[in-house]
Design goal:
With 264 residues, this protein is of the alpha+beta class. The chain has a domain at 34-104: Gyrase A, domain 2 (2-Layer Sandwich). It has helices at 5-28, 78-87, 110-147, 153-199, 205-209, 220-225, 234-238, 252-262, and strands at residues 44-47, 50-53, 58-64, 67-72, 95-96, 101-104. The protein has a four-stranded antiparallel β-sheet, with helices on one face. A hairpin with a 2-residue loop joins strand 1 (44-47) and strand 2 (50-53). It is flat.
Amino acid sequence: MDLSYNGILAEAKDRMGKAVAHLENDLRGIRTGRATPGLVDHIRVDYYGSMTPISQMAQVSAPDAKTIGIKPFDVSQVSAIEKAILASDLGITPVSDGKIIRLPLPMMTEEQRKKLSSHVKDMGEQARVAIRNVRRDCNKSAQAAKKDSTIAEDQEHDLENEIQDLTKSHEAQVDDLLKKKTDEDLLDTLDHIDELLKINPGVDISDIKIFTPYPGTVFFEEAIAHGFVPPTRIEDWSGFYWNKGNLPWLSKKRTQFLENISYT
């Protein structure tokens, strides 16, 4: 490693950035129930002996919130792409007309949501640990650089402060990525509410609005006004589930109603 001031700082930026990028890439492959082209990014297809990403073999789109569309550039590869999807951990059965492959995403169950929240939380913690390990390594490099007089003592102090600032900023990026994934789950719920309103325009939307009172949504302040006490840490939000959130305006009857319409 380059033990100059700028060299150590560049090493910290590079490795912390890679930790965040790794998390972002892994999160793309997690299914929340909302269709996004990124859900198939991690799937590789045996294309004439070369394991090739689907995105390089087809146009991938999300025509609606519940469907991923895959249009191969070479229609002879439809079967190979279907086979790769079935062999993946996506858990979705492809439907094909011979030219276009469609992946219908089912509504997630409560158990699946809990597993997702736990998994996302673990991934976030792994990313934070990786970032802090970089901080530790680069601080040791700063100490070694001072010891061999590559940098002065006051520079070591400044460098460690900059490394700490980088640590905080990259951990904030991790928090943002986790919130974004939680928001995808929220959007899935809102799409489901839209479907319910199309089926039954008479549904009382006030009963459904409090279904997911997450920060940043139009429901959050209203939920607070009704007596909702939100979690204070991102870790708690990642595991938050409305039916276990002690929402004060939900009667037992309403709770059962929302439970029924959510997972059927």
